[in-house]
Design a protein that fits this description.
Structural class: alpha+beta
Radius of gyration: 13 Å
Shape: globular
Order of helices and strands: EEEHEEHH
Number of strands: 5
Length: about 100
Amino acid sequence: MPDIIITANRLDDGSVEYYGGNDIWTSFINNAWVFPSKDNAKESVNMLSATGELERVGIYSIPVEKENGQITPVTKREEIRANGPTVNGHSKRDIDKV
């Protein structure tokens, strides 16, 4: 069974963020808090959504695989959200280095 993390988009610029635990959000997927079960993640999504926080929208959980300290989304959609567009072989991470 895959692990679960929580993601959302920042309201001001639409950037993808991941819940890192302890009310901390991060733009780096490898800093995301990995939940032990889908039920734990669902409970946290409900709690985070109910706080009335206006900085993030679309809070939801996603399945991931964790191997050697790296978190990898299971679906192509979430892989693109994490790494950026798949245009001409360049990713968001490549652009951020420039």
